[in-house]
Amino acid sequence: MPASPALSRQPWLPKRWRSTGSRLEALVAPTPAPAPVPSERILHVEDLGVRFVSRDGDVSILNGVTFSLDRGEVLCLLGESGSGKSVTLRTLLGILPPTARVSGRMDVDGQNLVGASESELRRVRGSKIAMIFQEPATALDPVFTIGHQIGETLVEHKGLSWADARARALQLLELVQIPSARQRLDAYPHELSGGLKQRAMIALALSCDPKLLLADEPTTALDATVQIQVLLLLRELQRELGMATVFVTHDLGVACEIADRVGVMYAGRLVEGADVAAIIKDPLHPYTQALMRSTVQAGMRGKVLDAIPGSPPDLAMLPPGCSFAPRCRHARAHCLAVAPDLIRLPGAGAGHSQRDMRCHIHGDEEAYRVSAPVTA
Amino acid sequence: MHDTSQAATLPIADDTRDRGGPMQPLLIVEDLKKHFPIGGGFLRKAPSVVRAVDGVSFHVDKGRTLGIVGESGCGKSTTARLLTHLIPPDAGSIVFDGDPVGPYGGITVADLRKQMQMVFQDSYSSLNPRLPIVDSIAFGPKAHGTPTRKARADAEELLGLVGLNPRQFARRYPHQLSGGQRQRVNIARALAMKPRLVVLDEAVSALDKSVEAQVLNLLARLKEQFSLTYIFISHDLNVVQYISDRVLVMYLGEVVEIGDVDDLYSAPSHPYTQALLSSRPSMDPARRRIAPPLTGDPPNPVNPPSGCRFRTRCPLAEPICAARAPELAALPDRPGQSVACHARGVGTGHSLSPAA
Q: What's residue A26's pLDDT?
């Protein structure tokens, strides 16, 4: 960046923050400086487990989740309620309640955060990892203005002065396409509509240009016409800023719009993971297949829906074998007894990448092939 | 199940409560209105008014399903509550099977409620947490004079009908059930009064996809079995398309379009319906949406725009739209589909208005 009068005006700033205007220029126009390595690993999660331990019992919420994410990639975690998708995000951000016991490993930008101290986490949150919550109305603080909340983050993490932080907050609001942003800077959250609140939430998350963006059902609470606006905005920003993004949703359609890869979760495990096109066109795990069959789509009028029998398992009493086996139409005796390991299947068909799979059908265990089918 | 011919509605004729015959719509709603005052009070400025429902008219034929869609704040849930008089309407008339509802002639609200039941979105808060579910189901019939023993036996039978084994579930409390099971209990409770019309207000919206499919199948089966008529309110356009025969689209308290489900989904006419339908995710990662069909949020219903309420977001808006509110009128080429839009009506003065 060229030296400028601003540099002499802000001698207290670290050198990388002394720029002509604000850092946002780097956000709006992609930095011309060192081009990012195409496959820069931002996130690697290995065998992540979360248990909630209390007097009432010991509930295992996540049972060995493994995935990784490169710069600029969007991973959608797809699953029903209780499948552990939101807990995965909260574990990454380190905002679980004190009863939680985390095991395994999660490297964010090369730093393992399992067992990190609160002060380490505090430095990482906001600056490296940011999160967008489902309910902006509860995630934003009702007693401070939008401008103050964004400014506070910038003052805390970037060491800006309040005046500079306010100027940058204004640019961030413009970046997320909030109309008449200058007035909205002084608005309280309750003065904004749902769509604008969620945009403000996105601006807040982007304020310290995070490397990893976590989004927990950010469009679920919004109306259809607003949902698609926010979704397209997120996709655009993510592409421009090159953030790695983990996007949690229960909506297949939303995943189709935004994901590069999809991870399907069931009862605290990733059961299938692959490119979004591969998952949609050719789901291989029986749960993914059943989920797609039971999702109501256009043109199914008058047909009896092929619903999945039963309901998701109680996490406090998980079956010993595959968690989906009691509802699975391909289940055999072996499935009920032994939980399948995560295996990696080579790409099937042209252009398809490999996929992760937790199912005996696609494994090569002799015990599965010889065991008897179970009629559910 | 979703037979669209009139003959499919005929089996109801042997119902002794059927007064109007198969051609009489089960429910006719005319010009229903509800304005909620907000603010104001002693020595303060005059209260402003939320026009939650502002002149809604429609009818539901016997044995059919009417879907109501719209964004939050458009008045669809208020409409449902007005129909069952959970909120008294400010104006408008409701005619149930030919009988006007109200104090002058016709049937009373209590009579109406026996024949019209409702299922709500939140399955937990709509059940009494201190009653075993069998007692919750039997509560209504008992209040209307059925002996306790019979009401409870009926309730157990209903539990079986909605797919919950009464021996296993009857004595359970709501917190011991999953969301899908609780919604089945709510459906059983609605059926306990032997209603003819069931209003389903976002009844499957809080359920997971795999459970939602089970409940939709159950609703279809029960409709057949008990010759029910449904009003199905949802914001999920795919679910409404799946279950409805006719669909009504609301925007800011008004009906903007109503028509048969296939016509409306294949050829939406109102610009808002078009935008709403094309806001659905594409379901194909190779052909993603590129631009959102609408910008901005729906305006505040406290001070809705003059004339057509959609004009502030409408790509076809012209001066006439601000000056005059469009009337709901049948399309010239499709009489089954009615639209409230100056650009579609004949002789409205809009530049796109078709010639008479």
A: 42
- What is the DSSP code string of B2-60? ---SGGGGGGGGG-TT--S-TTS-SEEEEEEEEEEEES--TTSPPPEEEEEEEEEEEEE
Residue B228 in domain? yes
Residue A135 forms contact with B (CB below 8 Å): no
pTM, two decimals, is: 0.86
Neighbours of B283 (CB within 10 A): 16
Q: Can you tell me the distance from the alpha carbon of A206 to that of A212, in angstroms, rounded to the nearest whole number?
A: 10
Cβ pair B281:A294 closer than 8 A: no
DSSP string, A86-144: HHHHHHHHT---TTEEEEEEEEETTEE-TT--HHHHHHHBTTTEEEE-S-HHHHS-TTS
Q: Which of B71, B220, B292 sits opposite A229 (nearest CB)?
A: B292
**Residue in A302, A305, A296 with CA at minimum distance from that of residue B4:** A302
Geometric angle at alpha carbon B250, from B248 and B254, rounded to 5° = 115
| A374 close to A336: Cβ distance less than 8 angstroms | yes
Instruction: Judge whether A328 and A343 are in contact, CB under 8 Å.
Output: no
Query: How far is B278 from chain A, CA to nearest CA, in Å?
Result: 9
**By the 8 A CB rule, do B294 and B251 touch?**
no
The alpha carbon of A187 is separated from its chain's Cα centroid by a whole number of angstroms, namely 28
> Which member of A224, A226, A311 has the closest CB to residue B280?
A224
Across B152-175, b (16+ Cβ under 10 Å) vs e yields bebbbebbebbbbebeebbeeebe
In a domain, B304, yes or no: no
| B65-117 pLDDT tens trace | 999 999 888 899 999 999 999 999 999 999 999 999 987 888 999 889 999 99
Residue of B nearest to A290 (CA): B210
- A221 CB near a chain B CB, below 8 Å? no
Encode pLDDT of A301-317 as tens digits. Answer: 888 899 898 888 888 88
Question: Identity (one letter) of the amino acid at A183?
Answer: Q
Residue B241 lies in a domain: yes
The predicted-structure confidence for A233-274, as pLDDT tens digits, reads as follows 999 999 999 999 999 999 999 999 999 999 999 999 999 999
Q: How far apart are the first and last CA of chain A?
A: 66
Interface check B280 vs A, CB under 8 A = yes
Q: Is A253 on the interface with B (CB under 8 A)?
A: yes
Query: Residue B171's domain spans which residues?
Result: 11-258
Cα–Cα distance measured from residue B107 to residue B101, given in angstroms and rounded to the nearest whole number: 5
Q: Which residues does chain A have within 8 Å of residue B223's beta carbon, measured at their own beta carbons?
A: none
**Under an 8 A CB cutoff, do B284 and A81 touch?**
no
Q: Closest partner residue to A80 among B208, B242, B288, by Cβ?
A: B208
- Per CATH, the number for A41-259 is 3.40.50.300
Query: Which residue intervals of chain A bear CATH 3.40.50.300?
Result: 41-259
Q: Which CATH number covers residue B61? A: 3.40.50.300
Rounded to 5 degrees, what are φ and ψ at A354? -70, 165
Instruction: Determine how many CB atoms are found less than 10 A away from the CB of residue B287.
Output: 9
B231 is a domain residue: yes
Instruction: Note whether B210 contacts A280, CB cutoff 8 Å.
Output: no
